């Protein structure tokens, strides 16, 4: 079945190289729906697109780059005509006590986790408003509900996205656009690959921030949550 003759929902999913993004893209494709599978390296998702029988495209997307957002959105419209569901999944973590932070790491995390997601939302809203239909799904974390030692800055990005999503839901509820927050706990999402840690630990925080960093590193890949079931 060609993409042009298919009237199934169109999902645009960011951060599809691994973890939730990859599993969600696979689930969408397996259901026979259409998918825009976004990753900084499109080759990493080529296998997903290959099995979609014309119902999926891969796009190169770093959500911190305005030009890549525009190009990816344009490719989605060219292929499928519209976007029904935007899933903001791209992001990474950084572990440090508040005093241990490296400003460039914190700013980079905010650029991806918050400002990148906000830019994606702004990019899809005009046509969703025009169609009076759409759904924005923000993949966040329990870290968007509670701040723990060593993850204050990461939690701050997710708290920020939480507030943005709550406001957006109220702004668009009369326009046919829905907003959903997904706040997972520990899942086996290959987070260790995208999890950064402070390079300047302070001994006084060893029993708080340091202990939690060590525990997170130790259980990487052993978390109880299965991302395929989550998808």
Structural summary, described in words:
The structure is a single chain. This protein is an alpha/beta fold and 231 residues long. Helices cover 45% and strands 16% of the residues. The protein has eight helices and eight strands. A six-stranded parallel sheet has the order 3-2-1-4-6-7, with helices on both faces. Strands 5-8 form a two-stranded parallel ribbon.
Q: Major sheet, described briefly? A: 6 strands, parallel
Tell the overall outline. Answer: globular
Distance between the termini: 24 Å
Q: Which blocks of ≥5 consecutive residues have pLDDT under 50?
A: 1-5
Assembly type of the chains comes to single chain
Number of domains: 1
CATH topology: Rossmann fold
In brief, what are we looking at here?
45% of the residues lie in helices and 16% in strands.
Task: List the SSEs and their pairings.
Blueprint: E1 10-13, H1 19-30, E2 34-39, H2 46-50, E3 56-60, H3 66-80, E4 85-88, E5 93-95, H4 103-131, E6 134-139, H5 152-172, E7 177-182, H6 191-194, E8 195-197, H7 206-218, H8 227-230
Parallel strand pairs: 1-2, 1-4, 2-3, 4-6, 5-8, 6-7
Features:
single chain, 231 residues, alpha/beta, Rossmann fold, two-stranded parallel ribbon, 8 helices, 45% helix, globular, disordered N terminus
């Amino acid at each position: 079945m060609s993409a042009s003759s298919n009237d199934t929902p169109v999902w645009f999913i960011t951060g599809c190289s691994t973890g939730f993004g990859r599993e969600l893209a696979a689930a969408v494709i397996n259901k026979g729906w259409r998918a825009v599978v976004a990753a900084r390296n499109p080759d990493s998702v080529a296998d997903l697109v290959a099995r979609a029988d014309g119902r999926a495209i891969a796009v190169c997307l770093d959500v911190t780059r305005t030009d890549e957002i525009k190009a990816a959105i344009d490719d989605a419209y060219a292929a499928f005509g519209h976007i029904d569901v935007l899933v903001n999944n791209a992001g990474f973590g950084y572990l440090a006590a508040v005093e241990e932070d490296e400003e460039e790491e914190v700013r980079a995390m905010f650029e991806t986790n918050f400002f990148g997601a906000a830019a994606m939302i702004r990019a899809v809203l005009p046509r969703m408003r025009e169609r009076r239909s759409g759904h924005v799904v923000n993949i966040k974390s329990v870290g968007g509900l509670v701040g723990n030692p060593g993850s204050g800055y990461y939690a701050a990005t997710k708290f920020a996205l939480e507030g943005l999503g709550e406001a957006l839901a109220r702004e668009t509820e009369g326009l046919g656009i829905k907003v959903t927050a997904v706040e997972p706990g520990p899942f086996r999402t290959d987070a260790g690959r995208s999890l950064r840690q402070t390079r300047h630990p302070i001994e006084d925080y060893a029993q708080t921030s340091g202990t939690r960093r060590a525990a997170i590193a130790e259980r990487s890949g052993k978390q109880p949550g299965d991302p395929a079931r989550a998808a």
